[in-house]
Amino acid sequence: MAKFVVNGGARLSGKCRISGSKNASLPVIFASLIARGTSEIDNLPDIGDVRVALEIIKRYGASISKKGNTTYINTEKLRYTEPDAELVCKIRASTYLLGASAVRFGRARLSPFGGCAFSPRPIDMHLDALLSHGAVLSDNGDITVKRLVPSVISFKKRSVGASVNALILAAGASGESVIEGCALEPHILTLIEFLRSMGADISLEGDTARVRGGELHGGKVRIGPDMIEAGSYLALSLLTGGGITVIGAEESELSSFLEPLLESGAEISRDVGIRLCSRPRKPVRIVTGPYPEFPTDLQPIIAPVLALSGGSIRDTVWEGRFGYLSELSRLGISSRIVRGVAEIFPSELKSGNATAPDLRGGMALLMSALSAEGQSVIDGAEVILRGYDDPVGKLGQLGAEIEYVDN
Length: 407
Ligand code: UD1
Fold this sequence. Notes:
Blueprint: E1 2-8, E2 13-17, H1 22-31, E3 38-42, H2 48-59, E4 63-67, E5 70-74, H3 85-88, H4 96-105, E6 107-109, H5 124-132, E7 135-137, E8 142-145, E9 152-154, H6 160-172, E10 175-180, H7 186-197, E11 201-205, E12 208-213, E13 220-222, H8 227-239, E14 243-247, H9 255-263, E15 267-270, E16 274-277, E17 284-288, H10 299-309, E18 311-315, H11 324-328, E19 335-338, E20 341-344, E21 353-355, H12 359-371, E22 374-379, H13 381-385, H14 391-397, E23 401-406
Helix pairs in contact: 1-2, 1-4, 1-7, 4-6, 5-6, 6-7, 8-10, 8-12, 10-12
The site of uridine-diphosphate-N-acetylglucosamine has 20 residues, from α5 and α6.
């Protein structure tokens, strides 16, 4: 297991440029499979999940090249192959293969998908989308599609993953499909933009998407800034003295994250970027929900900030997503869970050793270690590198003493 060794307690300051969004990159990479031609993707982040996704599509024969900040994916000569189980179980986004493979090859395979195991993660809505487009699921997990038909689907709740698959399937089916209850996260809008550039006609009214799909060609898209990475460095600024300016983030995407912090006494300044300073003075209450509500991925990230003045978190997307709190307690953060709500008490952060339980929980540990005086070791660095682009370089530029050790 790789680890980060941190000598914490310094005031971090300077500019931090936000990389491309992980959650936008992964749907776009898998969606590129459904066209014949070359797609151009600008601003993919250099993170573990993206590397795995590119490796997965290479196994189908996609040829990938890079010039500057643009990645070219040629999907002219693909052939179906059993998905590589070892790769597929490394990332959650391999669920997008279900839709993409069904469109391109008329078949797909259910196999254990990976990603953060903070809660049971059902895929019934993904399967509903497949079945409504004419797919047949056999007992051994094989999915076959003789003829991809357009469909009307109404989702019972907002699901990013199921919406990605539904959009990919609808874009590949000739005729008009309707998706009611489509997720509206910024990364979903990026996928829609990409599918449009491939030739799909997509309109969005409220949370209803109408998709006219069919034969598609290579597409083109720029991946926008990662709002979760931006939120992470903004929270780190509050924890380490208010000196980090985040460059290139989309402030409107961060409203639900900024609002509770500003209400409880944090201050924001804007010049070349955004900077959060002045620690919260009142307890902060967080309730997560689908976009534009507070993102579930930022709740572990905000937990160390809540330890400054106290607060609580209720996660309505993943109710049990609090496994990281026991690791945070190793760094001095005191909390308890009462009827599904995590109460975080004002705590003095201290150095220590802890293990990243998942991607965002891991980043919360790293941030806490950076703000606590003394040496900390955060094990499971590779889990954090799945979703954060060059944290050692970016943190080093801000004045952090951090070392990546792989042994
Ligand atoms: C979710 C988050 C996403 C985050 C990711 C990893 C939302 C809406 N989605 O995306 O922002 O990046 O976790 O932390 O905030 N569900 C079903 N059946 C399904 C699929 C989902 O019941 O087939 C439920 C889940 O149990 C969950 C909710 O729908 O309660 C949202 O899940 P979904 O958006 O699909 O999860 P991810 O795509 O992983």
